[in-house]
Design brief:
Layout: H1 6-14, H2 20-34, E1 42-45, H3 51-59, E2 67-71, H4 74-86, E3 93-97, E4 110-116, H5 119-122, H6 124-133, E5 134-145, H7 154-158, H8 170-179, E6 183-192, E7 195-203
Parallel strand pairs: 1-2, 1-4, 2-3, 4-5
Antiparallel strand pairs: 5-7, 6-7
Helix pairs in contact: 2-3
The structure holds S-adenosylmethionine.
S-adenosylmethionine binds next to helix 1, helix 2, strand 2 and helix 5.
Length: 209
């Protein structure tokens, strides 16, 4: 197997000790805020070990199409696949080890794009790409750790995109989305013990430009 390097390698190293409990809680709040339909075509961008994809797969047992789950780190995806096996929902997720930008999806083919705790690694080019893959009026939802309560360290800090620093406030993250042309932007702070995340949801414009 090819050795992963850079950010993927850093997440490969983290995969076996990943904090599923925290990220599963963040994912739950994100899915609740966006509230996808049972048959929506959905992607989990930078899915890691599948915090969002696994919960969607469990909630949408009767969905016709699998959740598209894409991540750069083979180690994180392997952990996600193993978790899916234990939850017996493996077939409901289409796992891909790949760069998530551009997302391997056709233009205007998805109803909802999720991205939990990862947009700071992808940068604003991801927000533009999600407008490409979303149908008009489709929904986007993402979370980010709040800068006042979390600081990326070591290898991870080196990979934070300059145009998406961790936000200081919910309003700041909402502004980036509005600047990318999304509408119906809602952003709020999620409190989880001593940790804080910003949860943002928005709609792709109904008219294509
Ligand atoms: C903090 S983890 C979050 C994972 C998952 N979304 C969750 O909520 O637990 C960040 C993830 O982003 C992934 N990632 C970073 N840059 C990426 C890129 N360009 N394409 C795909 N995945 C990427 C990493 O491999 C890692 O799994």
């Amino acid at each position: 197997m090819t050795q992963s390097t850079g950010l993927a390698g850093a997440f490969d190293d983290l995969a076996d000790s990943y904090d599923h409990r925290h990220h599963d809680e963040v994912a739950r709040a994100l899915i609740d805020q966006v509230a996808p339909g049972a048959q929506d075509l959905v992607a989990d961008v930078a899915c890691g070990a599948g915090a969002v994809a696994l919960q969607l797969a469990q909630r949408r047992q009767a969905a016709a199409q699998p959740v598209l789950a894409v991540d750069l780190s083979p180690g994180m995806v392997a952990v996600g696949r193993a978790r899916a096996e234990t939850m017996t929902c493996g077939g409901a997720i289409d796992w891909r080890v790949a760069d998530a930008v551009p997302l391997p999806a056709d233009d205007h083919s998805l109803d909802v794009v999720f991205c939990a705790s990862s947009l700071h690694f992808l940068g604003r080019r991801a927000l533009a790409d999600w407008r490409r893959v979303l149908r008009p009026g489709g929904r986007v939802g993402f979370t980010l750790p709040l800068a006042t309560h979390f600081r990326a360290s070591g290898d991870f800090a080196r990979h934070v995109a300059r145009d998406v620093p961790l936000p200081q406030t919910a309003r700041e993250a909402g502004t980036w989305v509005a600047e990318c042309g999304y509408t119906q932007v809602e952003s709020r702070i999620l409190v989880l013990g001593t940790r804080r995340a910003v949860v943002v949801s928005a709609s792709s414009p109904v008219r294509l430009d």
